[in-house]
Amino acid sequence: MKQKTLPYRVYTVPILILAAIGIAASAYLALSHYRNYTDIGYSSFCAISKSINCDTVSQSPWSILLGLPVALWGVLGYTIFFLLALPAQVNTQERRNLWDLLFLIALLFSLIDLFFGYITAVKIESYCIVCFLTYVVSFALLFLTWIVQQ
C-alpha cells in the first residue's frame, strides 16, 4: 500500500507563523525584562494585578538562565526553529529528518514551558500573559510537528 504524503504547506505556514509569534512574544518579554531593571517608571501592559503580572515574573530570580533573561533564550530558540522550518517546506526524504529534529525541538520547548509554568504557579505565584502565549505556541508547534512527522 502506497503511503500518502502530507500536504506540507498546509502545516508549514502555520508552523512558521507560530514560530514568528514565539520570536515576537519572547522579544517583547526580553525588552520588558530589561526595562524593568533600567526604567523605574516602567510597567508592562500585563501588570494587571498581583496574581497576573508579567513584571513580577520578569523580576524573579527564575527569569535569568546562564546570565541572560530566559526570554532572550526564547528569542534564540524560536529563531533557530523558524530558520530550520524554512527549508523543511520542501517535501523530500531529506526534509523528513528535519521534521524529526523540529519535533524534538518543539518537545524540548514544551517540557521547558511545563517547568516554567510550574515555577510561575508554585514558586512565583504570579502569572505572565505573554509567557502563557509562548506556552501555547510551544505546544501548538509540538502538535503540528508531530502531525507532519507521522
How much of the sequence lies in strands comes to under 5%
Spatial gap, N to C terminus:
16 Å
Total beta-strand segments: 2
Output the number of helix runs.
5
Task: Give the CATH H-level superfamily.
Answer: VKOR domain
Q: What would the principal axes of the Cα set say about the shape?
A: elongated
Identify the CATH class: Mainly Alpha
CATH topology: de novo design (two linked rop proteins)
Mean pLDDT: 87
> Mind describing the biggest β-sheet?
2 strands, antiparallel
Q: Which structural class should the secondary elements be placed in?
A: mainly alpha
Indicate the low-confidence ranges by residue numbers.
none
Into which percent range does the helicity of residues fall?
over 70%
What is the second-level CATH architecture? Answer: Up-down Bundle
Oligomer: single chain
Spatial strand sequence of the major β-sheet:
1-2
Rg (CA only): 17 Å
Order of helices and strands: HHEEHHH
Task: Tally the structural domains.
Answer: 1
Main location: membrane
Transmembrane segments: 12-31, 64-86, 98-118, 124-148
Family: Belongs to the VKOR family.
Subcellular location: Membrane
